[in-house]
Amino acid sequence: MDGIDNRCPWCLGSQLYKDYHDHEWGRPVREEQKMFEFLILETFQAGLSWITILNKRENFRTAFHNFDIEKVASMDDLDVEELLHNKGIIRNRQKIEAAINNARVLKGLHSKGKRLVDILWRYVDGTPIDNQRREMAEVPAVTELATKISKDLKKIGFKFIGPTTMYAHMQASGMVNDHLVTCPAYSSCLE
Predict the structure, then answer these.
(1) CA–CA separation, 58 vs 55, rounded Å?
(2) What is the pLDDT of residues 16-41, one digit of tens each?
(3) For the residues 69-92, what does the mean pLDDT come to?
(4) Which residues, 6 or more positions from 65, have their beta carbon under 8 angstroms from its beta carbon?
(5) Hey, CA dihedral for 91, 92, 93, 94, is it positive or negative?
(6) Which residues of 139-154 are buried (b: 16+ CB within 10 A; e: fewer)?
(7) Residue 180: beta bridge partners?
(8) Which end of the chain is more exposed for a tag (fewer CB within 10 A), N or C?
(9) Dihedral, CA atoms, 96, 97, 103, 106, nearest 10 degrees?
(10) Choosing from 24, 32, 50, 123, which is the catalytic residue?
(11) By C-alpha distance, which of 156, 150, 190, 155 is closest to 170?
(12) Three-state DSSP class for residue 130
């Protein structure tokens, strides 16, 4: 991608960050398993830096069966104990149990013909919100919509998805375009 200096400044710390920024962050996710992966990774990120998660992403993929919803939903207490000893991931019992719980909630939604992708995209009428940010100071950590979605997801059983985590997920999955308008990735994230 040309214009390295024009990228969103948060990604300039490492090549891994740049690659994630250039090829994934803010690109609309319409595939269920990918949406689940982003949601789980965002829950593990809570209280940590995103680069920590990116550095462990392949380990998370292995530990959580490549985010196969059925397989994660079938994980049990023995799996939780095993994951608590896995140095390749974030070893936080609440986050691990939330990932499994959230897969079970999704499995239940699937049995009713509902998908997380459809549920989440309905909040923005299927189209990314184009925030047209000019500087990083304009990018909030949370919004009213993220707070509403977080509350709604908790009502149907999701765990460890607060408003800040939800807004980070909305940014990552392209529900909102928070690339700066001067960033080369900005226009490619508009549908």
Answers:
(1) 8
(2) 999 999 999 999 999 999 999 999 99
(3) 98
(4) 71, 72
(5) negative
(6) beeebebbeebbeebe
(7) 133
(8) C
(9) -130
(10) 50
(11) 150
(12) strand
- Is residue 50 flagged as an active site residue? yes
**Which residue out of 17, 25, 37, 42 is catalytically annotated?**
42
pLDDT of residue 1: 45
- Cα(121)–Cα(119) distance, rounded to whole angstroms? 6
Residue 98 has pLDDT above 90, yes or no: yes
SS3 for 143? coil
Residue 164 has pLDDT above 90, yes or no: yes
CB distance 99 to 64 below 8 Å? yes
Helical segments of the chain, H only: 15-23, 32-45, 50-63, 69-73, 77-84, 93-111, 116-122, 144-155, 163-172
At 163, list the tokens.
Answer: 């408003």
DSSP 75-105: --HHHHHHHHT-TTS---HHHHHHHHHHHHH
> Looking at 20, 25, 121, 186, which residue is catalytic?
20
